[in-house]
Specification:
single chain, alpha+beta, Nucleoside Triphosphate Pyrophosphohydrolase, three-stranded antiparallel sheet, 4 helices, metal-binding, EC 5.3.3.2, Idi_bact
Amino acid sequence: MTEENVILVNEKDEQIGLMPKLEAHEKAVLHRAFSVFVLNEKNEIMLQQRAHHKYHSPLLWTNTCCSHQREGESNIQAGTRRLREEMGFTTELKELFSFIYKAPFDNGLTEHELDHVMIGYYNEAPKINDDEVESWKWMAVDAVKLDMEQNPDIYTVWFKIIFDEFYHFLEDHKL
């Protein structure tokens, strides 16, 4: 299997090229990404624990799913595809906002992403893909915020950044 490319972008989210995913993370080049938050009717977030064999951030908790768009794929199409691949279900997604962040990992790689944050609603249990996901759980939004303050080392570096943006968005828009 050939390595997947990421879409290189400028700060206006205009495509400027393609690069293999690992190379983009080694060089900390700005690229397009997305993060999906799935909530249930109790306003709990479906969190996933990354698989133990992932090359970065194994066994850390993060949002429902996240990844990179493929060339020619809309943000919603990419989020829907990855949600199905990782969590085994689909639901209608809505794009909320986007922002740029840069987060280094302990292994020398760096995420430098223009991240499109999406939300969806679902009330059932996922059918997780063991190659991608170790475990999952529902957790109240405020409980995640508190746990992240008390146990920051069990969450992915990008989730801590994205969750802060997501939490303020929820406060401002009362979703």
